[in-house]
Write a structure and sequence with these properties.
Helices cover 0% and strands 60% of the residues. The chain has 70 residues and is mostly beta strands. The radius of gyration is 12 Å and the shape is globular. The strands form 2 sheets. A 4-stranded antiparallel beta sheet has the order 3-2-5-6, with no helix packed on it.
Length: 70
C-alpha cells in the first residue's frame, strides 16, 4: 500500500493525465499532468482506503486499483 506517495512509471514519456478517485467515483486528488519517466504523486490529505487511479494517455484510458495506508 502507498503511504506518502504514489509512483507511476511512464515508460514512453507520453503526456499522462492522472486522477485519483474514491470508491464512489469522486475525485480524491486533483489531476496531475506529466511527461516525466517517473511521476511522484503525494497522498497528503487522503484518508486510508481503496482508490482508483485514472490514467489518461495517448494509448487511451486505464484504471488501476490503489491502496493507501496512513
Amino acid at each position: 500500500p502507498a503511504t506518502e506517495f504514489i509512483f507511476v512509471e511512464n515508460l514512453n514519456n507520453n503526456l499522462l493525465k492522472i486522477r485519483l478517485l474514491n470508491a464512489l467515483g469522486r475525485e480524491a486528488l486533483g489531476q496531475s499532468e506529466s511527461q516525466e519517466s517517473l511521476i511522484k504523486i503525494p497522498t497528503k490529505g487522503t484518508a486510508s482506503g481503496i482508490y482508483f487511479m485514472q490514467i489518461n494517455s495517448e494509448g487511451g484510458l486505464q484504471y488501476k486499483k490503489i491502496a493507501i495506508q496512513k
